[in-house]
Amino acid sequence: MTCPRRITWRCVAAIFFFLASNTWSDESPQTLVPVPNRPAAPDFNLPDVDGEQHRLSNYRGKVVAINFWATWCPPCLREMPSMQRLWEKLKEKDFVILAIDVGEDDETVFRFTVALDTPLEFPLLLDLEGKIVAQWPVLGLPTTFIIDKQGRVAYRAVGGREWDHADFSSVISAMINE
Amino acid sequence: MTTKITWLSTYLIVCMTAITSVSVAADELDPVNPARGVRTWRWSGDGVSLRLTQLLPDQVRGFYQARGFGAAETEFIAGACVFQTVMKNKTSNNPVAINLAEWWIETAGHKKQLKLEHQWQQQWERLDVPQTARLAFRWALFPTVQSFAKGDWNMGMTMFALPPSTVFDLHANWRAGDQSHEAVMRNVECVPGRVEDRS
Predict the structure, then answer these.
(1) What is the ipTM for the molecules in this complex?
(2) Is B154 on the interface with A (CB under 8 A)?
């Protein structure tokens, strides 16, 4: 990891969080929690790091994974490569991942993606002022929601997951075929 | 005879209920990690695990300065006895509900509550801390109220607002279904203020 002088503090912070997260490895079950009655997902219209706008309701007819994250959040970083692998597995089907960064600008997110070993190909959206995350039932980062083809919140996962776990792709594939 | 058996059964059920709802105390102290110079305390039981890892003042300064806090506020946070806290619902089928307002610490014979996010935010508002910094603060903190389904977990900072090197017992409570639980983590220590104190 290279640390240009002007972002030394950010690098220090990033290193500290990586170190602090070293012991996450005690096994946790890979679960998705069904959301009762599948409420309608709050719509949003957010830019990605390339400036392209993404409106959630425009993805109606596809299964959408909405992931709230931040570059300084260790479990968020940890799960990103597995999210990319899930994306690669299902991107030819009716499946989309929208990863919404909370409270950071495009420069910060861009620097983060450049430093990653695994290039992230799904859209990274920016909720700079935290207005969108406030409309969702999110208490901590990362939190991920799986939205069904009708735009309803079907599942949620609080905390990091190994998204390329077979259980997740089979749940999502079943939703695609609903 | 039947009456006696019924009473005995009732007594046993009451005892079993009392056993499952009573505080379960266990703590395990990791040795100091020489690479990091920080210590970790762990607790595990009732399908839940809890971990506290000391955060060094320099680490905390680095994080908050990069997110728009001024030097004075950063210094204040860095000295607030900060831990990286991780809680997981590993196997409990009932959602695990916590409220940090119900957690408390005991040090030198005194009981004290944690300094919670809303109290910090009131302070940042008075000090005109920028909104972006306050947003980062909110998301970096271990949330005050949370519910963990099986497999859910979260990580965030807890701030105990105690002087460096203070030793305390943490009483962490939660509810799972209609049962109350408590983890007691003993002899948790705020990180020493000076580098030479950490040897």
Answers:
(1) 0.80
(2) yes
